[in-house]
Amino acid sequence: MTETGGQPPRPKRKPKDILRFRGDRIITEDDLDRTFPEDDEESQYGDRRRHIFHGAVLVFLVALLVAAVLAALAVMRGDLVIPGWEARQVDAGPKGCPTGIYDYPDNKSFTLNVYNGTRLEGLAGQAAEAFKDRGYKIGKVESVDLIRPGTVAIIVSGPAGEAAAFNLQRNLKGTSYKPDTRGDNSVDLLVGTGFKELVPEELVDQTPGSISCPLLTPKPAAGG
């Protein structure tokens, strides 16, 4: 029973579901947090590891590129010889160094062919231009098989070109002569990585002399 004149108590109702609107569920901030949790310490550590790994890979690739460039330059200069890339010896034909004494012939009296025996681009042209400035008659300017690293130049001619080879040796120090069987007096100059410059023209010795063939001179026997 109720008190006289009092109103009957109102029935209790369930709280209104504020997460639904017209039958559709509303996404709240709590739902987003559960679905996309913030980075915890473990995930941040994983990101740091990935960044460190990527940085290390980048540094390694840069170091590898620098090493490759330095190695290529060393090979081109002849400071580094890679197995399988060794210089091939020039086969000049007959063996033995001429023993005669030669007069110094005129620079214009024979044809000079200049060949690049290195991987240095333009070296044959550089040498040919230097000799041309002294009045030499330049023939071919091309590239050939590699010659021994550090070699200044190898001079090749037939018997008729021995005096011309002697002329070249007086203008370019440190060369070695090798004979072949050609019949004319032309001379081949195979330029190596040791080529720098010619002897100053006013200092060229034009007195008679002999040819130098260090690559043909046999090495003394051990203990001899």
UniProtKB/TrEMBL annotation:
Q: Which organism is it from?
A: Arthrobacter mangrovi
Q: Does the keyword Transmembrane helix apply?
A: yes
- Transmembrane stretches in the record are 52-75
**Residue ranges of every copy of the LytR/CpsA/Psr regulator C-terminal domain listed in the record:** 110-195
What UniProt keywords are attached to this protein's entry? Membrane, Transmembrane, Transmembrane helix
Q: Which InterPro entries match?
A: LytR/CpsA/Psr_C (IPR027381)
Q: What is this protein called?
A: LytR/CpsA/Psr regulator C-terminal domain-containing protein
